[in-house]
Design a protein that fits this description.
The chain is of the alpha/beta class. Helices cover 51% and strands 14% of the residues.
Amino acid sequence: MIRVLLADDQPLIRSGFRALLDIEDDIEVVAEAADGGEAVALAGQHLPDIALIDVQMPVVDGIEATRRIAADPVLAGVHVVILTNYGLDEYVFTALRAGAAGFLVKDIRPEDFLHAVRVAARGDALLAPSITRKLIDRYVTQPLRTGAAAGLAHLTNREREAVTLVAQGLANDQIAARMVISPLTAKTHINRAMTKLHARDRAQLVVLAYESGLVVPRTS
């Protein structure tokens, strides 16, 4: 059962998402919050698998709520997916830096929304295609972050290869096929790389891959 926390200051939006989730046999909404501070508190009480958090809320916004959840070791198993009406790249960059596992625009189709929840629950990075394009564009134009490449020296060649494929958007099965290894071995390489690079999840692993220059975005 996938346990979900909904956080949005608009009751109608929360009701809409809850209606979609409640009809699924493998998903349970365990709590609802109207602001980021309440979302953090409820995450601590219920320990959901997924926290769907609106980016713009009163009192404490979604970015700060994400940052607080990601910084709390007790909430290490909570995967935050940021929800917004806008595909603004500054929100994407800041949300991923704060520890978000994904970023979705609210006009997503219902079937894609449900798929997104299940993908995030598996611990996979989740970005809407339109958001991914904006994120890549951001990395094309910004300089590499100083010190971002330092951790790469601790990776084995196979771990570096696995990280590169994660940053290209491949799932574990695809990575395994590309590397000619089992999916379990691929997952092991990725998990070890995350540990060595101090990445909370695959989304942050993608950020580090671009920031360090391990993966260079295509400019055309």
